[in-house]
Amino acid sequence: MSAAHLPPAPGDYDTSHSTTVRKYNRTYGLVPPAVESLDVQASRCLKQLERRPQSIDKYLYLSSLRSTNVHLFYRLVSQHIKDMAPLIYTPTVGDGCLQWSHNYVQPEGLYISYSDRGHIASVLHNWPQVNVEITVVTDGSRILGLGDLGINGMGIPVGKLSLYVACAGIRPEATLPLMLDLGTGNKSLREDPLYMGSRREKVSAQEEKEFLDELMVALTEKWPGIVIQFEDFKNPFPALETYGGKYTCFNDDIQGTGAVVLAGIISAVKRTGVPVKDQRAVFFGAGSAGVGVAKQIVEYFMREGLTEDEARRCFWLVDTKGLVTNDRGDKLAEHKIYFSRDDNAGKQYKTLEEVVDHVRPTILMGLSTIGGAFTPDMLTKMGQWNEHPIIFPLSNPSANSECTFEDALKHTNYKALFASGSPFASIEHDGKLETPGQGNNMYVFPGIGLGTILSKATTITQSMIYASATSLSTSLHPSEVSQGWLYPELARIRDVSVIVAMGVIKAAQEAGVDREQSIKSMGNEELEKWVRSKMYDPTTETQRVEEEVQGLTDPSKWGGNRGSHL
Ligand SMILES: NC(=O)C1=CN([C@@H]2O[C@H](COP(=O)(O)OP(=O)(O)OC[C@H]3O[C@@H](n4cnc5c(N)ncnc54)[C@H](O)[C@@H]3O)[C@@H](O)[C@H]2O)C=CC1
Ligand SMILES: CC(=O)C(=O)O
Ligand SMILES: [Mg+2]
């Protein structure tokens, strides 16, 4: 609801509002007269979606709904999350980004260009919302597995923040999608007449660092306590290193992905019955996500009794040049050195096939961006070597998945423990429905953000990230565990986010980085109730606004200023 002196906000045009609220908001007469139930509103939206066969058209319809009728959008998304997540997030958001400048109709976030350096604070001042609690920021330089999309990557902060609202109850107006227009290495975009970003080459790493230094100060001065999520940067390690212990920030691709995959791995490893010391993990892709995931699992293996060196040696990372080894002859990027092998006896393994044959892995992890990289032959061998091979093709969007759910099952004689980054449909086999896991950071980042905001944590510690993973792994209902699922039902995501947020809050308290005094001595039950009470719920928003308007007794606000023209 907008303040009395402001023009109506998008949520004010909600057709579920009573005449009284419409008069107060000055939207009376601006929307059709019927006061609609939430069910009627939802059925119209679902019909609109049905009429559009292409996912991208559904995406565009939903984007426009978010901009014009925000609470209805979130009611629809949170009540139909299984159907809506693939439309507002991966895989469809991939197309949304690829076509961003071509489809552009309305502002949905904030763009700050390299030419704004020195004045970033004044650009932030243009953001129309007063209280921002969380931002997702990208420079568009590695959007999903689609490469450098420049400012077209804005779909990712918008999509991720929509999930923060729908899945963890952050208020929509407290979110800031932020695109850093730092140029693009994508020549075809620079030459596209409809491209809406700066037509310059990507700035240098040093220029980017200086720009980020200014941005971090400006963001935290304007909104003290703001949670900053770094997303889809091509090389995000330096920023995490520089700002991690200093600001309330985290990197979703390194840490969020690490946590979500760890949660699935904890369950999967238990299912295999193979002790962690005998697990052998081949990672196809040694970038931010690959290394982030491997490091989280190292910590788990250590907690299960291995030394750090023993744990580290359970991993074989493969990049474009093959197995990452000490004597490969190229200068290894800093983040790969920790996992670089020294036991290859001078032999270099150039392809994933060679590495798989050499290692005979128990775990095959895909964070490479290369669709179909897990061949039928590799999958068949995984099935022959393991009673329950763990196969996680995690690259997004769907076309980049290293294999399909169907292939993983078919070639392993239906023994694979499977999770993918983008969703796959369930498959019927032998009269039984086989359901794939979705190992996507969407299971943890909403809860990490919520827990951080509510605990008023000054930084996001590794222990908070680890707690998000263990909390997620314990969130499965017994019926989900008995069906062999690695992740909980997506329809329960709001409840799951509460569990994750509580784990994050407790870890923040243990680390001593929390500042919310009122919850320090709360037990589990009380804390859960408190967390839920703080969450935005689009299904009760109409009622909340109704009560707020009815409760207004100040005649100058009601009869005089806002409603008198009626
Ligand atoms: N499921 C999830 O929640 C998440 C999935 N991802 C996905 O993981 C993928 C990688 O993301 P990042 O690690 O951030 O990217 P990145 O660019 O940092 O790393 C990509 C890695 O793949 C390797 N690679 C690329 N092409 C290859 C080839 N032809 N052969 C062998 N290796 C190759 C690169 O050498 C690099 O090590 C993306 O598709 C992204 O969508 C990322 C974050 C979360
Ligand atoms: C899911 C995600 O963060 C990615 O694919 O980059
Ligand atoms: Mg990402």
Automatic annotation (TrEMBL):
Active-site residues per Swiss-Prot or TrEMBL entry: Y89 (proton donor), K160 (proton acceptor)
Cofactor binding summary note: Divalent metal cations. Prefers magnesium or manganese.
Name of this chain's protein: Malic enzyme
Domain Malic enzyme NAD-binding, chain residue ranges per copy: 254-509
GO BP field: malate metabolic process
Residues where (S)-malate binds: R142, N396, N440
Keywords of the record: Metal-binding, Oxidoreductase
CC per GO annotation: mitochondrion
Stretch list, region Disordered: 538-566
CDD domains per the UniProt record, alphabetical: NAD_bind_1_malic_enz
MF-aspect GO terms: malate dehydrogenase (decarboxylating) (NAD+) activity; metal ion binding; NAD binding
Alphabetized PANTHER family for the sequence: MALIC ENZYME-RELATED, NADP-DEPENDENT MALIC ENZYME
Pfam families (UniProt xref): malic, Malic_M
